[in-house]
Every structure is written in structure tokens, then in C-alpha cells.
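--- STAGE predict ---
source: upstream dedup step, 1 unique chain passed
mode: sequence only
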Amino acid sequence: MLRQIGIVSLIFLCHTAIAQEFTFKELAELSEGNYENFEAIVSRKGFEFYKMETPTLEPRTKTSWFHFQKLANGKIESIDYIQRIENWRADQQKIEVTYSTYDLNYFIALKSQLTKNSFKISSTDKLADGYMIINNYRSDTFWGWTVSTVQSRDREKNIISYSLSINKTQKISN
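--- STAGE serialize ---
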């Protein structure tokens, strides 16, 4: 499926090191792989393991959440790998990869890669106070994929963070 993605190289307007960490294609590939591959790739890019959690979000759901961080330009950048098996006996799992940044130019570049790959906004949620905006994307080309972007403002620090999440449902390989 990823072979169908025709990523055009983007010229990033900003000159920060983080602006070239991951393309949409790379994030999509991470969402199709296993945790070991994810860990190896993000470690090569300078991210360090921060913590792992196994929250109990729903009954009969097994969730493993791996969080990696990197200090770039004085700010924390993070990437998460979340594996969710909704029914322990099922043969499917949902993998979510979320990349978070404070770099608006990088976020804009990632969003433009979405539209170049046939993703369109399917819904928008905005908190009444305007401190969080969530856009959900769908594509007729990429079945089984959902993408969302979140823009949120920290009221205390008065900074805005941006994140892009890619969800992919896939078969569990034994």
C-alpha cells in the first residue's frame, strides 16, 4: 500500500533540525511495522526511550504505549508507538504512531503531504475555548488508515504544540 504513496520532496521554509525528522511516508511506514523496527528507526534519528505504559482503557483491550523524546532547539519533540489489540483473541491490532512538535512550519509541511496523498478532512472538533483543534482525515485510496492532526495551546506556558497521528489496522503476524 505504501508503494502507492507518491511523496514529493518538500522544501521546508524553516531551518530547524527537527523540520526534516520524518516525512508523512516515513510515519506511515512506522505505523505498518512492528515495535522493534519502530524503536530502531527512531533511535537512529536521535530519539531516546522515555517510558512505556500499559493503560487499561477498555475492558478486553490490551494497549502498549511506548514514548520516545528528543531535545531539539531547546524544546522536547516526541514520537509514540501505541499498539492496541481490542479483543485478545482477535487476529487484528491497531497501531498508532503519533509525532508531536512545537515547530509550526514542520507541522504545515506534514499537513500538505496529507493532501498530496489524497487525504481529506472528514471532521473537525474544536473546544469551545479554542485551545484545541482536532482534524480527522480519510482517504479513498488508503483503506484501513485514519490520520488526525491536533493543535493545542498550553495555557500556563502560552505555547502551541502540534501533532499528527496515523492509525493502521493490520493482521497480527505470529
